Every structure is written in structure tokens, then in C-alpha cells.
Amino acid sequence: MITSRIHRRKPAGKPMPRHMARANARKFTIRAAVEHAFAHQKPRYGLFIRTIGLARAEAKLTLANIAYNMGRLIFHERRHAMG
Questions:
Q1: Which runs of consecutive H residues, i.e. helices, occur in 1-83?
Q2: Of 10, 14, 23, 32, which has the fewest beta carbons less than 10 angstroms from its beta carbon?
Q3: Exposure pattern of 66-77 as b/e (b: 16+ CB <10 Å)?
Q4: φ and ψ at 51, to 5 degrees?
Q5: 21-38 burial by CB neighbour count: b if 16+ within 10 A, else e?
Q6: pTM of the model
Q7: pLDDT at position 79, please?
Q8: CA distances for 32 relative to 7, 28, 39, 60, 80, angstroms
Q9: Chain centroid to CA 5: how far?
Q10: How far is residue 43's CA from residue 77's CA, in Å, rounded to a whole number?
Q11: What residue ranges of the chain have pLDDT lower than 50?
């Protein structure tokens, strides 16, 4: 009941099979949402985790995610208010 979330590479010198391309496309939609958020957080919030222990690393990620989500909320609220 476990499904792979890893993208498949194109065979060397051959075109990518259609079923493999479709599977990669489905996986990409999930991955893109996460990757864009982290790409935004890294330079802005200094998201570089060098902590001792999982709890501290999780706390740092949680705070960065809260700050990111608050920024997105403000952006969308302003955009909605402008019309």
C-alpha cells in the first residue's frame, strides 16, 4: 500500500515512455507546491537548519512556516482589498 514518490529518469538514448511521463507529472504537482514554499523561505528567513535534536529543527521549521503563511495571508488580504 506504499506508492513511490520518486521521479523516474528517461532511459538513455530513448524517448520516455508515456506512462512514466504521466506518473512524473502527477508527482510533480505535489512536489512543486512544497518546493516553492521552501525556495521562498531559504533566503528570506535564513532557513538553514543546524540544530542539535529533532525537536529544535522541527521548531525552527514550524516558525519559518508560520511566518511564510502569515506573509501569504497578508499578501492575499491586500490583493483582495484592492479589488
A1: 18-45, 54-82
A2: 14
A3: eebeeeeeeeee
A4: -120, 160
A5: eeebeebeeeeeeeeeee
A6: 0.58
A7: 94
A8: 12, 6, 10, 22, 25
A9: 13
A10: 24
A11: none
Q: Which of 46, 44, 3 is CA-nearest to residue 26?
A: 3
Burial (CB < 10 A; 0-12, 13-18, 19+), residue 50, is exposed
Instruction: Please calculate the CA angle 31-37-43 and round it to the nearest 5 degrees.
Output: 130
How many C-beta atoms surround the C-beta of residue 2 within 10 A? 4
- List the grid coordinates of 24: 512524473
* CA 56 vs CA 26, 43, 61, 69, 80: distances in Å: 33, 20, 9, 20, 36
Q: pLDDT tens-digit profile of 25-48?
A: 888 887 888 888 888 888 887 777
